[in-house]
Every structure is written in C-alpha cells, then in structure tokens.
C-alpha cells in the first residue's frame, strides 16, 4: 500500500482524538520520528518504493512482434543504435539521446515499441505511469521521480547491464503544462524534478539511462519537457494503413488455425480506422466465435462477425416490435442503397440485429485508405448519412428518432465543408456569426436531401424489395445487395 494512505489515516485519527479531548502531542512526536526514520531508510535504499515495475526477462518483445508501424520502428531503431554503439557515437561526437516521446492514438502499440527497444538494446526495462507520481502530499511526486532514476541505475548495476530504459506511460499527467493546476503546486514540483533528472543524464555515466514516454495528448505537455536535450525525438505512432493492418492480423493469427476461406487482405480492407489493439481483439473474438460453434478452425464468417462485435458490441436481447423492425429495415436499406449507388462496391454488410446501442447497422468497405476528402466526397457522405431518414419518409411518410446519430454526422460533415472553405461562404474566419454558419449547414443538408429523395424515388421498388428481404433474413451481404441492384437495372 502506498505510504500516503497510512499518513492520511493517522491524521484522521489524531484529529478525532483531539476533538475528543485527548493529548495528541506524544502521538504526533512519535509519528514525526517514524516519518523521519522511514524517509531516511528510503533514501538509503534500505527499503524500496516499488511503484514502478521491472519487466521480467521472460516477457521480452522484439520489433518483429510489432506490426503496422514501419516508420515508427525505423526511427526508434535508429535512435537505439546511439545507445548500443557507444564507441562509434563518441568518435563522431554524437550526444546520446536522453528521451524519446511516442505519441499517437490509444492502442497503436506505443508500449510494445518501448519494450521492443529495451530488447533491441539489451537494456533493463522499467515501466510506470504518469498518474503514479502525483499525490496530494507535497514532495511525494518529486521524491518518487528521484527514486525511479536512482533505482533504475542500481538495478542495472546489480545485473551488470550498462543500459536501462525508463518507460513512462501517460506522461501528460506528470508533464502537464506548469500553471495548469494553480491550486496544486505538487504537479509543478514533480515536473521540475523530472526536468532536473533528465538534465543530469550524461553520456559517460556508468549506466546509461534513456527515458521513453508515451502520450495521446502531446498538446498538454509542458514545452520545457519537449525541447531537445530532454525529449530529443518525438515519434508519431499512427493508426496503421491497410498494409499495416494486414501485418498486424498476420501476427495475431499466426498461433490460430485458419480455414481455407480466410482472406486476411479483405479483413484488412474492411477495418479502416482500427488500431492494433482493435485488430488483436478482432482476431480473439473470431476465435471465440469459432469455439462457441464447435469449429476446429476460424473461418471468414467468424472474422466478418467479429468486425461488427468490435465496432458495435455484442448482440443484445432487445426485441423491437414488428413495426419498428420494418422501419429499421427500411432505414438501413436506404443507407446501403445510396452508398452503393454513390460508390459501387462500398457496402460490406447490413443488418437489423441489435448490437450495443445500434438497432441496425450498415458497414461500408472503403476502396482504399483515404486521408483527405474533396467537396464531392464530403457531399456524398452527407447523402449516405441522411439516406436512412429520407427512406423512412418516402415509404412510411414520416421520420423517426432512429436517425438522430445520422443527422449529427451530416451536420459534422457540413461544418467540415464550411471550415475547409468548400461551401458557398468560401474562406471563413472566427468573426463570422454562428447563425450564418448554422443557416449554411441547413442549406447544405437540405440540398443533399433533395438529391437523395430523387435517387430513392427512382429506386423505390428496389428499396421496398430489399427492405422486405432484410426484414426476413435480418442480414444481407454486400454481394447480395449488388446482385439485386444489377438485376433491377437489367429489368429496368
């Protein structure tokens, strides 16, 4: 148990005894003496403050175990060469790096990269989190920072290791901009101590320390911590692209029996926006589904269903009424039909089986990873977003609250058009009124609604047929949808 909890309990007891009329001075004197003795033993290393963990040797991770981060791995491996080859960098007058900051979305493999760096350099690896340092008692955080660096050196020497890596996850908690907590100077004191320790790292130390930190909120970190000489490199660890997702899937399925019909390339294509953690969960969920069904190998259908499970959650027991199911089927068919007409081959799957908070769902399969969008593409996405509500109005004469999330998405896309200067307003600035922007958003969505109404009116009969089929089967694949669309066009 951390030592601040007994301190808090002791203070509470003393306060209770004081108001009860007892003389607490002898107890306070004894407590102060015990505290001084404890801190002295702690500083001398006779007792350990084990708030960080040394990773055991059996838990080593190599760079080959990290998929989908080729750029980050190359940059990190180059930095590790400065740690490994001490003589070469000395001849060239290179100053060894003191700190490396890994930044990117959650689940992208920042911790794995740090562990791989320790394996690559044969360094001891110590892991902690930014939240472990800051407490309510003054001086605790700074003392913990000192203890962390001291113990890293001591343990490395004990194991005859010339190098050690200190990994701090959630560094934004420890390294938050000074002044952000005006009423709590403990944050600033802890950060100041970390700055001092990193300044004290020297290339000629008996044990060379490297600080690797991870964050997904680099904007919160104090600039003094980010400057060269402390965190010398900032390595971006981004969401993997299609090739990266394929590599990660291959890594997480290498110990799993796969059926002959499994096409990991198709799964990688369908999982745009998934992080490495999402993909690991997907492979695990697919294996669980195969186990539930008594299968000896994982098939493509298991992976397809696992995508929905990871994105939306488990199937729920909600039982909508017959009228609601019919409306949901019309709604999802409207999304799917407009999506397929806007971009052929885009629909991967649609269902009216409730999952998580969704009563129905249409999943798209992107043709390729896209990182920027044109005005035409954004307007197309708006049409797809509002197609469900328009389909309800076309066949049932009124809309429902089921389109709430779709409307929010359409508004977000319309605002993006405006912010990027792609609307009739042209380039906008901060002085333009909210009412003007709001009226432009409504105008953009109204214009796209008219186009969707025209599209669905032309395919009204197919919309009815597909909605009826979806209501009956509960699930339709993109291939089935495209087959019906082709047949309809042939007859027409």
Q: Can you tell me the number of structural domains?
A: 4
> Which homologous superfamily in CATH is the superfamily of the largest domain?
P-loop containing nucleotide triphosphate hydrolases
Query: Runs with pLDDT <50, length 5+?
Result: 44-51
Please give the share of residues in helix.
Answer: 40-55%
What characterizes the major β-sheet?
6 strands, mixed
Explain what the structure shows.
Mean pLDDT is 83; it is low at 44-51. By secondary structure, this protein is of the alpha/beta class. Helix 10 packs across helix 11 (264-270) and helix 15 packs antiparallel against helix 16. The chain has four domains: 1-47; 49-236, Rossmann fold (3-Layer(aba) Sandwich); 242-312, Helicase, Ruva Protein, domain 3 (Orthogonal Bundle), CATH 1.10.8; 322-491, Methane Monooxygenase Hydroxylase, Chain G, domain 1 (Up-down Bundle). The chain has 19 helices and nine strands. It starts with a helix and ends with a helix. The radius of gyration is 29 Å and the shape is elongated.
């Amino acid at each position: 148990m951390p030592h601040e909890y007994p301190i808090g309990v002791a203070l509470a007891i003393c306060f209770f005894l004081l108001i009860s009329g007892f003389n607490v001075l002898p107890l306070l004197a004894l407590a102060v003496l015990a505290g001084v003795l404890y801190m002295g033993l702690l500083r001398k290393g006779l007792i350990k403050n084990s708030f960080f963990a040394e990773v055991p040797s059996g838990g080593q991770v190599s760079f080959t175990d990290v998929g989908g981060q080729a750029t980050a791995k190359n940059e990190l491996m180059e930095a590790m060469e400065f740690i490994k080859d001490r003589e070469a960098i000395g001849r060239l007058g290179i100053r060894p790096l003191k700190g490396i900051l890994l930044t990117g979305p959650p689940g992208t493999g920042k911790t794995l990269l740090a562990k791989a760096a320790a394996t690559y350099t044969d360094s001891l690896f110590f892991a902690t989190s930014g939240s472990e340092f800051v407490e309510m008692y003054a001086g605790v955080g700074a003392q913990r920072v000192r203890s962390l660096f001291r113990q890293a050196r001591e343990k490395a020497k004990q194991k005859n290791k010339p190098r050690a890596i200190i990994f701090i996850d959630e560094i934004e908690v420890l390294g938050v901009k000074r002044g952000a907590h005006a009423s709590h100077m403990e944050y600033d004191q802890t950060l100041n101590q970390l700055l001092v320790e990193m300044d004290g790292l020297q290339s000629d130390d008996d044990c060379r320390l490297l600080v690797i930190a991870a964050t997904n909120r680099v904007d919160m970190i104090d600039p003094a911590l980010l400057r060269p000489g402390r965190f010398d490199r900032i390595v971006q660890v981004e969401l993997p692209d299609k090739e990266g997702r394929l590599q990660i899937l291959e890594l997480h399925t290498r110990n799993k029996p796969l059926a002959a019909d499994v096409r990991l390339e198709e799964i990688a294509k369908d999982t745009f926006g998934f992080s490495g953690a999402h993909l690991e969960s997907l492979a695990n969920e697919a294996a669980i589904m195969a186990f539930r069904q008594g299968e000896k190998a994982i098939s493509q259908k298991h992976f397809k269903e696992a995508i929905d499970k990871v994105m939306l959650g488990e199937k729920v027991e909600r039982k909508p009424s017959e009228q609601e199911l019919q409306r949901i089927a019309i709604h999802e068919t409207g999304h799917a039909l407009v999506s397929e007409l806007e971009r052929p081959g885009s629909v991967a799957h649609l269902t009216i089986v409730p999952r998580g908070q969704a009563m129905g769902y249409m999943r798209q399969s992107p043709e390729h990873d896209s990182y920027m969008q044109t005005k035409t593409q954004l307007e197309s996405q708006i049409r797809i977003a509002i197609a469900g509500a328009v389909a309800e109005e076309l066949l049932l004469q009124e809309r429902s609250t089921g389109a709430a999330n779709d409307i929010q998405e359409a508004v977000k896309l319309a605002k993006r058009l405006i912010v990027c200067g792609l609307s009739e307003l042209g380039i906008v600035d901060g002085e333009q009124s909210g009412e003007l922007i709001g009226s432009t958003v409504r105008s953009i969505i109204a214009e796209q609604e008219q186009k969707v109404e025209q599209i669905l009116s032309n395919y009204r009969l197919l919309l009815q047929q597909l909605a009826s089929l979806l209501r009956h089967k509960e699930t339709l694949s993109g291939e089935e949808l495209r087959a019906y669309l082709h047949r309809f066009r042939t007859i027409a």
